[in-house]
Design brief:
elongated, three-stranded antiparallel sheet, about 30% helix, single chain, about 80 residues
């Protein structure tokens, strides 16, 4: 019986142990970021705002246009 309980606990821990969800909101109060939960933030008069997406890479610059080369006449 003890082995079963131990095995069940191990399975439960590994099933729920994963990476936590990425934080995408923050508490802003008086222009500064405050480390609080949403409930605490709103209770203290802060504003719960979505964070800017900093993970997106900037678009690659367009390649520079090169002038067309004219064929040079061959000397005979």
């Amino acid at each position: 019986m003890t082995r079963f309980a131990l095995a069940a606990a191990l399975v439960a821990v590994t099933a729920f142990a994963g990476t936590p969800p990425k934080q995408n909101h923050q508490c802003m109060k008086d222009g500064a970021v405050v480390q609080k939960t949403k409930k605490e933030c709103l209770k203290d008069g802060g504003k719960w705002e979505k964070m800017a997406d900093a993970a997106k890479p900037a678009p690659a610059p367009a390649p520079a246009a090169t002038p067309e080369e004219k064929p040079t006449p061959k000397a005979e």
